[in-house]
């Protein structure tokens, strides 16, 4: 039996009926775990009596551990609602009559299921104040999503954005968010360190924009930078983190627009590398899929 038959993350040209059924079930169940858990802990905190003083809702924990990477709940909630809705749309591709769409959806399925499982675990740890364990899960998920990005980078945008780029952009920011909470980074040295580390978001966004011409990553990191900026407003009288976050957001937006406009109007230069082939990128937007 070929080695790839033992590897759920191997890229395949086709999937058997049994494999597709497994992907359909696990994809839906793992996605529902994230949706239900995220919704529940947005409004409720864990009720365990042991260490109850560190138990909070998702955003209660964000407010309880104020750091230089505390986020704006409204922006992040909108970001995740849109992402989850687009992920629900992705699930339907597993039933698509077009074999190319079905195969593409199944090929990213294992990574998506693992992402959902790790995200579910992170939420459970975050609301209970187990930040270091949460950071480990985020690091594993980052490896999972980076691998997904580089191994499956030629799929339509309606698969690439909700399954690959949006979760990946979020994981970069979540590691800063959770890591700052883990070290309780609220004093002056921690804020100075945060002022330096935040520029990493511009470096990461610039990398995906310049190397892969992936404007979706640029826009997503810009939105997440906005969440940091708004989350930092009024935190400290002399803090500049919100200013830096707004600057990074603006630069990422400009870079994303510069990359996106030629692609949208069909003026892509042939010598520029691109995450998604132009014809495949437009396909889901021009037909009934």
From TrEMBL:
Signal sequence interval, chain numbering: none
Q: Name one Pfam family in it.
A: DUF1774
Q: Where are the transmembrane segments?
A: 21-43, 69-93, 105-125, 131-150, 157-177, 192-211, 218-234, 240-261
Keywords attached to this Swiss-Prot or TrEMBL record, sorted alphabetically, are: Membrane, Transmembrane, Transmembrane helix
Q: Which InterPro entries match?
A: DUF1774_fun (IPR013920)
Its recorded name reads ATP synthase F0
State the organism named in the record: Lithohypha guttulata
Give the lineage.
Answer: Eukaryota, Fungi, Dikarya, Ascomycota, Pezizomycotina
């Amino acid at each position: 039996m070929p080695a790839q038959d033992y590897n759920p993350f191997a890229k395949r040209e086709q999937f058997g009926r049994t494999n597709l059924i497994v992907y359909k079930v696990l994809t839906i169940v793992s996605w529902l775990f994230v949706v239900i858990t995220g919704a529940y802990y947005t409004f409720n905190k864990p009720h365990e009596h042991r260490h109850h003083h560190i138990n909070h809702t998702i955003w209660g924990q964000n407010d309880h551990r104020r750091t230089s990477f505390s986020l704006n709940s409204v922006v992040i909630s909108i970001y995740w609602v849109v992402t989850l809705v687009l992920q629900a749309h992705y699930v339907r591709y597993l039933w698509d009559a077009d074999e190319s769409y079905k195969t593409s959806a199944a090929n990213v399925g294992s990574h998506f299921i693992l992402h959902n499982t790790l995200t579910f675990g992170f939420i459970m740890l975050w609301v209970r104040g187990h930040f270091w364990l949460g950071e480990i899960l985020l690091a594993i998920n980052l490896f999972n999503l980076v691998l997904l990005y580089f191994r499956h980078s030629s799929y339509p945008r309606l698969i690439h954005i909700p399954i690959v780029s949006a979760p990946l952009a979020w994981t970069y920011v979540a590691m800063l968010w959770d890591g700052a909470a883990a070290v309780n980074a609220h004093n002056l040295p921690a804020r100075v360190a945060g002022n330096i580390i935040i520029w990493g978001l511009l470096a990461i966004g610039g990398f995906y924009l310049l190397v892969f011409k992936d404007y979706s990553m640029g826009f997503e990191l810009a939105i997440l930078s906005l969440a940091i900026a708004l989350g930092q407003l009024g935190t400290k009288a002399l803090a500049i983190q919100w200013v830096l976050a707004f600057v990074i957001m603006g630069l990422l937006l400009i870079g994303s627009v510069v990359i996106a406009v030629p692609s949208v109007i069909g003026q892509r230069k042939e010598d520029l590398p691109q995450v998604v082939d132009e014809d495949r990128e437009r396909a889901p937007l021009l037909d009934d899929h």
